[in-house]
């Protein structure tokens, strides 16, 4: 066979910096009210960064109770312009409920409303049995006073609530939702509720909000579902089309509140703002999620005046309020430039995903936290105009399947840890990037070079770290394949990187050190700013191979012809190959075949 001539063994001892760019009664309910109101907050001291902890206390048994005794219930009959009731107060086309109990509503009401104004100790159950209520200027359902209200959708019932496009204040309250509650609210049942809100939100609770069963179809000019203290969902089927966020929880008075917990359910969300947004923390245990936010990844803004690395870079989309210091996510806009935040799933505090099936098409980050993200399971299909996963502090993937088919950067956080899972990343810039702060990676000038070809100083901090201890990772990146902005440590797993083809980018990029002590690494990319591992406990082979086209096969065998690295075919052009695995022994000689060319190299 024809030998690779010349082929130069690269033992990159120098530190080539890859980060120089700017980077019933209360006693009978174990509800979330008491839990979040005390120092426990469902399992820990409450703060923006808290997690939900003991989630069993977030629901009461009555939240799931959909039964009722028809014989013991009051009846409210809606007949167009009139209302008939044997228990509630009727005034024109308004019915007011003042006593604890169960009320069964049926029929149609034109330009009217249901008001709950009971004692603060009363629990009210409203059963919707084929109800249609329209209010031109207010909320069809207005809950002013009660301890807690349950809206139950009767079995197989079809119910509709709508507003005419205007919300007038009542009782000094700025009503802005088709269902507007100042008290704790639970929706459940085995029927369907359709909501139209052409000028406001769909469902609003200024206290705690629960959805534990039922089918909900919501079209709203603002948020689809809004809860001030928290939103907890289990079992429900929810379809939302929203002019702002699909599901939104925010409390500007108490940073421990404004959290979201999703136990299960089915969610189809199309939102101009974020798909699901919490001003505190968020936990998702299971569910099926189909989210299109901000118009989808095709709606990400582009700019044409910044060429870096030999190609045109994407402008990062407008950042939502979770990135700002104000912490006010109510508008779903960036305080700096007033652009709508179009993230898929966003939390200002910790974000934990333990399972679920996610299909996210987002203009901005698909999964975002201002603090940290833990992925302990789930399946993700992501197309995003910005980052697949972004955390200002740490991102940890312990398990799950992640397929990022389109992104600006795939995984980004100050500290990125991959301990397990199957991860596929396609990125316009870096595949995995350890960059702290508020989505600032990718900005800044082209990295400078000193006379030795080493990177010049940049404005990125070297505090970043990337640790890979397990999992299967595939990266196809137009920027740096793995950009540590600090330290890179690989102790396990199977990592494949098809890195950049041109410019000031590299397969591996770290400021301080790049260490491999276990696992398999296969990397290809451009040679201009190439780095290899600075330290290793297993053999590493790094070679320049000249410019090779995408689709060229790479095979590594030992001196006896045993396959060490099986056939690998990079999807991008390359000029450098970096190989390491526990079966590569330092000081041993190996043959690498690239296309029709073969060369011998000694592992370092």
From TrEMBL:
This is Dockerin type 1. The keyword Glycoprotein does not apply. Residues 1-22 form the signal peptide. It comes from Thermoclostridium stercorarium subsp. leptospartum DSM 9219. Residues 30-54 have a biased composition (Low complexity). The keyword Signal applies. The lineage of its organism: Bacteria, Bacillati, Bacillota, Clostridia, Eubacteriales. Residues 24-54 are annotated as: Disordered. It comes from the Bacteria. Transmembrane segments: none annotated. Keywords: Signal.
């Amino acid at each position: 066979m024809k030998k690779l001539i010349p082929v130069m063994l690269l033992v990159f001892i120098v530190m080539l910096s890859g980060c120089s760019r700017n980077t019933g009664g209360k006693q009978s309910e174990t509800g979330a009210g008491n839990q979040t109101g005390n120092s426990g907050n469902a399992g820990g001291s409450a703060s923006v960064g808290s997690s939900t902890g003991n989630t069993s206390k977030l629901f009461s048994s009555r939240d799931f109770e959909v039964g009722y005794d028809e014989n013991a219930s009051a009846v409210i009959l809606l007949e167009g312009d009139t209302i008939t009731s044997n228990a509630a107060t009727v005034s024109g086309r308004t019915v007011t409920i003042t006593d604890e109990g169960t009320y069964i509503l049926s029929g149609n009401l034109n330009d009217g409303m249901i008001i709950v104004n009971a004692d603060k100790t009363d629990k009210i159950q409203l059963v919707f049995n084929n109800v249609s209520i329209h209010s031109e200027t207010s909320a069809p359902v207005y809950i002013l006073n009660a301890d807690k209200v349950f809206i139950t959708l009767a079995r197989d019932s079809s119910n509709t609530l709508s507003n005419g496009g205007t919300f007038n204040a009542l009782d000094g309250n700025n009503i802005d939702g088709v269902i507007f509650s100042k008290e704790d609210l639970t929706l459940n049942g085995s029927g369907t509720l359709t909501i139209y809100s052409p000028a406001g939100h769909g469902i609003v609770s200024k206290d705690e909000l629960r959805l534990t069963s039922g089918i909900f179809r919501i079209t709203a000019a603002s948020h689809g579902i809004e809860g001030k203290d928290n939103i907890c969902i289990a079992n429900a089927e929810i379809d939302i089309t929203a002019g702002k966020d699909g599901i939104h929880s925010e409390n500007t008075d108490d940073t421990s509140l404004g959290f979201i917990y999703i136990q299960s359910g089915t969610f189809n969300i199309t939102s101009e703002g974020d798909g699901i947004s919490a001003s505190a923390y968020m936990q998702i245990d299971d569910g099926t999620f189909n989210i299109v936010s901000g118009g989808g990844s095709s709606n990400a803004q582009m700019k044409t005046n910044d060429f870096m690395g030999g190609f045109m870079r994407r402008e990062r989309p407008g950042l939502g309020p979770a990135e700002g210091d104000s912490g006010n996510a109510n508008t779903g806009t960036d305080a700096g430039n007033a652009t709508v935040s179009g993230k898929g799933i966003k939390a200002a505090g910790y974000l934990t995903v333990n399972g679920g099936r996610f299909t996210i098409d987002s203009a901005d980050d698909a999964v975002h936290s201002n603090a940290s993200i833990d992925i302990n399971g789930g399946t993700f299909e992501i197309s995003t105009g910005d980052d697949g996963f972004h955390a200002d502090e740490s991102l940890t993937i312990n398990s799950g399947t992640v397929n990022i088919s389109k992104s600006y950067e795939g995984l980004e956080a100050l500290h990125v840890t991959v301990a397990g899972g199957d991860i596929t990343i396609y990125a316009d810039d870096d595949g995995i990037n350890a960059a702290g702060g508020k989505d600032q990676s990718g900005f800044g000038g082209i990295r400078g070079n000193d006379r030795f070809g080493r990177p010049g100083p940049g404005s990125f901090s070297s505090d970043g770290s990337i640790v890979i201890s397990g999992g299967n990772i595939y990266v196809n990146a137009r920027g740096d394949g793995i950009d540590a902005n600090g330290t890179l440590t690989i102790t396990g797993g199977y990592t494949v990187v098809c890195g950049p083809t041109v410019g000031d980018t590299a397969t591996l990029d770290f400021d301080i050190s790049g260490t491999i002590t276990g696992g398999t690494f296969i990397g290809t990319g451009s040679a201009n700013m190439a780095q290899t591992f600075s330290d290793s406990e297993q053999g590493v082979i790094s070679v320049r191979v000249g410019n090779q086209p995408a689709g060229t096969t790479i095979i590594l065998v030992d001196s006896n012809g045993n396959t060490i690295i099986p056939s690998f075919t990079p999807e991008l052009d390359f000029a450098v190959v970096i190989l390491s695995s526990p079966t590569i022994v330092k000081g041993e000689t190996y043959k690498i075949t690239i296309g029709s060319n073969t060369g011998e190299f000694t592992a370092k």
